[in-house]
Amino acid sequence: MAETFVYRQVGECSIEGVLHRSPVKQAPLLVFIHGGGLVWGTKDDLHKEQIKRYTEAGFHVFSVDYRLAPETKLTGIREDIESLIAWLKTEASSMFDFDPNRVAVVGSSAGGYLALLSGTFEVKPDAIVSFYGYGQVTGDWYKEPSPHFTAMPTVPEVLANQLVQPSPISSAPIQTRYAIYLYCRQTGSWLDWVAGKDLAKDEEALKKFAPFELADAAYPATLLIHGDADKDVPYSESVGMKAKLDALGVCNELLTIRQGQHNFDANMEDPDAIYAVEQTIRFLKERFKIEES
């Protein structure tokens, strides 16, 4: 039975996570952060088959929401994830039974970016897995119109603006918000919408939001998973993050999915998706010294 917890309250906005328990006592915790370009997504987006595989492997799974852009800008989104990790490390183990010294953050796409960002916080997770995430927020792939997205039907600015809510939200299904992301990628304006125009112009200040820039020798062990045919988040983002962690002497691996597209793991009948989840379990079991049963 899934259980819902509020991990942060900001004004009238309750930010939640849903817990899927493993039968293992004092199990390590796998925290999942959804993707969606920081503008859409919900805590229920994690594939049920992935939840099943992770819990059967001996992990509790805590899939979380966070406040979404553009109603909440990048500074506030970072604060949500910082609060989440601190809450898990200091308070949450008294509410549900898990080992607070074995907390892994797993994210996909924008969630992969936030997972990588969590390794730069004062209170860090113990391991990170990034599915097709990114270590920078200033790349041309986000600042210039994307050929992949400009080939799709054009979204007018007025439609994107109509989808923005009057107050902060922490959950939105793709059907209600995808047009915002599509507009941003078609116009190269994603950073303006997500960070705010002032911050978007300040490359020095933006380094505070870039895992690639902030990572140091204390960064957690990291598994990077990326398809080399990704047309949304470039494969080079994970290659660059690996090079950075290698230079720092941080334990890391890059799992390349040959001809893998963005969101390849949405189809859990695909052998590549199954392999990626199996490798995530293998990597985390090694890091957390969990013996195979």
> Uncertain regions: pLDDT < 50 for 5+ in a row?
none
Order of helices and strands: EEEHEHEHEHHHHHHHHEHEH
Report the structural category.
alpha/beta
Radius of gyration (Å): 18 Å
In the CATH hierarchy, what is the class? Alpha Beta
User: What does the average pLDDT come to?
Assistant: 96
**Span from first to last CA?**
24 Å
Query: What is the CATH topology classification name?
Result: Rossmann fold
Name the helicity range. 25-40%
Number of strands: 8
Shape: globular
Strand proportion? 15-25%
Can you list the strand order of the major beta sheet? 1-2-4-3-5-6-7-8
Largest sheet: 8 strands, mixed
Q: Name the CATH architecture.
A: 3-Layer(aba) Sandwich
Give the total of domains. 1
Q: What is the element layout, followed by pairings?
A:
Blueprint lengths: L2 E8 L2 E8 L6 E7 L14 H9 L3 E5 L9 H17 L7 E11 L1 H9 L8 E5 L8 H4 L3 H4 L6 H6 L11 H14 L2 H6 L1 H4 L2 H4 L4 H4 L6 E7 L7 H14 L3 E6 L13 H17 L6
Question: What do you see in this structure?
Answer:
- With 293 residues, the protein is α/β, with parallel strands linked by helices.
- It has a single domain, classed as Rossmann fold (3-Layer(aba) Sandwich).
- 38% of the residues lie in helices and 19% in strands.
- It has an eight-stranded mixed sheet, sandwiched between helices.
- Strand 7 (221-227), helix 12 and strand 8 (252-257) form a beta-alpha-beta unit.
- The radius of gyration is 18 Å and the shape is globular.
- The two termini are 24 Å apart.
